[in-house]
Amino acid sequence: MRKLFMIRLENGNSVIVQADNREQALEFAGLTVDPAKQAAAMGERDVAGLHLVLVHEGFGPQNYTIREIENFLCVAHLEDDGDFDISLESGEGSDEFYKDYPHLCEAEREHLRRKFTDPTFDNPDVRRLYQEAVEKERTRLLVVS
């Protein structure tokens, strides 16, 4: 039976993929794409530039974390334009994502700890707290030179 894997990408996004094992999950998610072969196929001479574009899009070799998901539930809401809006509809499903986002967990704890007069996202201080956490998450797996 296939398993569900969550791959937390270098750019901060995540991919949920069903596969037999970790290696297959990485392949299905596009992380085994060879930038040099891709550049050759596209007639692109700047392999490093293409690799950077691939990483920004969530493909090709990059830093990532991968693990098997224990709890997952999502709902696909059919939109009027025929697209689907995918959302996590359970606490357990959301908790699965937060395991790979420690800065967001920290922001949530801070949000609950501080007694904001307006605890909603209409409050600029609350919004800033989460924006800073998101920025940290988007750069957390980057290689620092």
Mean pLDDT over all positions: 89
Number of strands: 5
Low-pLDDT ranges: none
The biggest beta sheet reads:
3 strands, antiparallel
Which structural class is indicated by helix and strand composition?
alpha+beta
H and E order: EEHHHEEEHHH
Number of helices: 6
Q: Beta-sheet strand percentage?
A: 15-25%
What's the helical proportion of residues? 40-55%
N- to C-terminal separation? 42 Å
Strand order of the largest sheet: 2-1-3
Shape descriptor reads globular
Radius of gyration: 18 Å
Can you describe what's shown?
The structure is a single chain. With 145 residues, this protein is an alpha+beta fold. 43% of the residues lie in helices and 19% in strands. It has helices spanning 22-28, 35-42, 47-57, 91-98, 102-113, 124-139; strands at residues 3-9, 14-19, 64-68, 74-78, 84-88. The strands form 2 sheets. A 3-stranded antiparallel beta sheet has the order 2-1-3. A two-stranded antiparallel sheet has the order 4-5. The radius of gyration is 18 Å and the shape is globular. The termini are far apart.
